């Protein structure tokens, strides 16, 4: 087998595919000298809200900032508890800790998302909110979560950083909770050329709060400070680039689904692999990541890397096992099992068939096929 190199994502290649449009956006921003909170940001926010299906979108500096500002918008602080999955990127949990609240971790199910049947058992009189995380482009069970939240009067903040464009029964990720939180980190399904993020919401109050807080608490029209805020708005330049890329999202999602199907057809006969395909009516997987589980864990992912296939193994070490984070490890069985086995294959819209066939060949050769 001739060795090749297949990248997990290839931002340079995607840039070359969109070069004329991205260059036009760049020159437009530069020539107008519009850098902070100008037309490109407003346009992107309008288009993003439309795409997600909410009244408002507010561009922020990062996915983390969108989670953090959401916590504050919900009035969550010291003494409050917020339920969050044990298997997620650490930023979900850090947003809770950094407002002085206590994260209450809950195990996940084999689809990598929070186990809704384990939410009630950790609820106390201090429980104020739930932060479901929609990992890899596949949403947590929002109908069940909203039912619990309505019954017990809890705030829902969706960490949708990995699931822009996903939906359940036609309702988009980020349109269910008080807020939806998105990241435009370059590896995400809608990636910028640096950090970026956004909140989506149907609440004018939350939208106004976030718009002020991203500008150090200031109402830009009156100059009045409405609280101690932050400097965390999405750059106008990034917004201009993201606005170009957002237009491609529907066709890119179709492309991702086609790649996922190709992986499925080529790999589903391998008994030691668990592939990320789920049969749940109404749920739509947009494949931000194609994260499979291999019984051979690290041995499998190392073999792929040695053969030039760039893979991600998020997260081999669960965040609550990092000592400095000071979080209780209550023994999350599913999280521990899948953490040993996860491996995300290259999944992006710039990949070609030759590269995909090579990835498939390497995976099969690991199993002697
Ligand atoms: C990427 C990500 C974040 C954080 O986004 P940043 O833009 O890197 O701050 C939060 N939660 C999840 C699930 C993510 O994947």
Care to describe what's here?
This protein is α/β, with parallel strands linked by helices and 369 residues long. It is 37% helix and 14% strand. The strands form 3 sheets. A 7-stranded mixed beta sheet has the order 1-9-8-5-4-2-3, sandwiched between helices. Helix 2 packs antiparallel against helix 8 and helix 9 runs parallel beside helix 12. The longest helix is centred in the last third of the chain and has 19 residues, at 249-267. The model has no long low-confidence stretch (mean pLDDT 97). It binds pyridoxal-5'-phosphate. Residues 62-64, 88-89, 91-92, 133, 159, 161-162, 183, 185, 195, 197 line the site of pyridoxal-5'-phosphate.
């Amino acid at each position: 087998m001739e060795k090749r190199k297949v990248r997990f994502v290839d931002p340079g290649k995607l840039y070359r595919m969109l070069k004329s449009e991205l260059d036009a956006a760049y020159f437009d921003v530069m020539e107008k000298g519009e850098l902070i909170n100008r037309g490109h940001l407003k346009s992107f926010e309008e288009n993003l809200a439309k795409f997600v299906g909410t009244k408002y979108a507010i561009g922020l500096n990062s996915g983390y900032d969108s989670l953090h500002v959401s916590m504050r918008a919900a009035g969550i602080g010291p003494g409050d508890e917020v339920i969050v999955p044990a298997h997620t990127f650490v930023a979900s949990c850090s947003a809770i800790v950094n407002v002085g609240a206590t994260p209450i971790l809950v195990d996940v199910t084999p689809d990598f998302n929070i186990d809704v049947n384990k939410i009630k058992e950790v609820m106390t009189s201090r429980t104020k909110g739930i932060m479901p995380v929609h990992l890899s482009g596949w949403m947590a069970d929002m109908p069940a979560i909203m039912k619990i939240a309505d019954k017990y009067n809890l705030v829902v903040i969706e960490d949708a950083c990995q699931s822009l464009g996903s939906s359940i029964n036609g309702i988009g990720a980020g349109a269910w909770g008080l807020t939806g939180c998105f990241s435009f980190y370059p590896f995400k399904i809608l990636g910028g050329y640096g950090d970026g993020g956004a909140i989506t919401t149907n609440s004018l109050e939350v939208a106004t709060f976030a718009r002020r807080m991203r500008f150090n608490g200031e109402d830009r029209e009156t100059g009045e400070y409405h609280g101690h805020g932050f400097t965390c708005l999405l750059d106008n330049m990034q917004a201009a680039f993201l606005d170009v890329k957002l237009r491609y999202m529907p066709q890119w999602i179709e492309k991702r689904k086609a790649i996922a199907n190709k992986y499925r057809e080529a790999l589903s006969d391998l008994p030691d692999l668990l592939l990320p395909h789920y049969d749940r009516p109404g749920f739509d997987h947009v494949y931000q990541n194609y994260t499979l589980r291999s019984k051979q864990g690290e041995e499998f992912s190392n073999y792929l890397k040695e053969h030039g296939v760039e893979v991600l193994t998020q997260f081999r070490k669960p965040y609550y096992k990092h000592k400095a984070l000071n979080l209780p490890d209550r023994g999350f069985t599913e999280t521990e099992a899948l953490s040993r086995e996860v491996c995300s294959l290259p999944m992006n819209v710039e990949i070609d068939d030759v590269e995909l066939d090579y990835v498939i060949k390497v995976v099969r050769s690991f199993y002697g096929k």
